Amino acid sequence: MTGQLLRYTSPSTPDQFAPRFSQIATFMRVPVAETIGEADIGLFGVPWDGALTNRPGTRHGPREVRNQSTLMRAINHATRINPFELARIRDMGDVPFTRMFEVEASHDEIEAFAAMLVAENVLPLAIGGDHSVTLPLLRAIAKEPVALIHIDAHADTTDSFQGSKFNHGAPFRRATEEGLIDPAKTIQIGIRGTQNTSDGWDFSASAGMRVVFCEELHDRGPQAIADEARALVGDTPVYLTYDIDSLDPVYAPGTGTPEIGGMTTHQAQVLLRGLRHLNYVGADLVEVSPPFDTGNVTSLAGAALAYEILCLLAEVRAGSATGKED
């Protein structure tokens, strides 16, 4: 045998400088957590889509976002944030499901998984999954009503559908009813698309939520909307939820309920980069559906926007005392 001897490296600790196509995929190429407490920020998958009202497949979202996230590198070219230097970031795996055919039982399992992280002072960043998963995540995180930045094509404040109150079009109506979010400090950005009833829009307005339809975002620009969101939220603990269908289907065909007239990927980046230095208590990115994708463009967009969200969380986490040491 000639040449340099190889040294075994555990696949649980990926090499950030290895070729993008090699090694076992983890979110953003971060190490797999061996214990919960070793992480400052925990990335995890929620591979579940049992509350969909339209095209299925978002249960496959976390796996493909993991694959595409291996294309992410360390330093954000626009903000120069390197989240991996600011915080200990780990892949926590996926929420394990034992009753996936029961909506409320599955939501309980999502809540229990996220609660384990919160109990160890780990800031959660979830990759779904359909948008109903945000409700149990909020149940785990919100000890009192939190502010909400909700980026989506749909308000998701409709009521029951086909007899279910917990479908993916209803999480923020339920969250309001359960006292998990403060409607007066909630902003919904990018809303658009035809509806058979105005019930969801009406609920958002009557509850006091700020609804930014996509026409307004296009007219005013994403930076102006981000500035408004920051002013609305202030110092209040805030949860950020990003539905990939906020993007126009040109940029995100692989989703359950596509709506034309949406944001470009650049507008989405500008919007997220304008949301720095808020008091984040958690975040998610949802509704990537690989079976309907084309050339992995939706999964890639999901991974890239999840990276932007990770930068927001890492910058804020680095500025707060965690009580943890390496």
TrEMBL record:
Names of required cofactors: Mn(2+)
Cited NCBIfam families: agmatinase (TIGR01230), PRK02190.1 (NF002564)
Keywords recorded for this protein, A-Z: Hydrolase, Manganese, Metal-binding
SUPFAM superfamilies referenced in this protein's UniProt entry, alphabetically: Arginase/deacetylase
InterPro entries: Agmatinase-rel (IPR005925), Ureohydrolase (IPR006035), Ureohydrolase_dom_sf (IPR023696), Ureohydrolase_Mn_BS (IPR020855)
Sequence similarity: Belongs to the arginase family. Agmatinase subfamily.
Domain of life: Bacteria
Name of the protein: Agmatinase
UniProt-listed Gene3D superfamilies: Ureohydrolase domain (3.40.800.10)
Example of a GO biological process term: putrescine biosynthetic process from arginine, via agmatine
PROSITE patterns recorded: ARGINASE_1 (PS01053), ARGINASE_2 (PS51409)
An annotated Gene Ontology molecular function: metal ion binding
Enzyme Commission number, as recorded: 3.5.3.11
KW ATP-binding (keyword) present: no
Annotated binding of Mn(2+), by residue: H131, D152, H154, D156, D243, D245
TM spans (from-to): none
Cofactor notes: Binds 2 manganese ions per subunit.
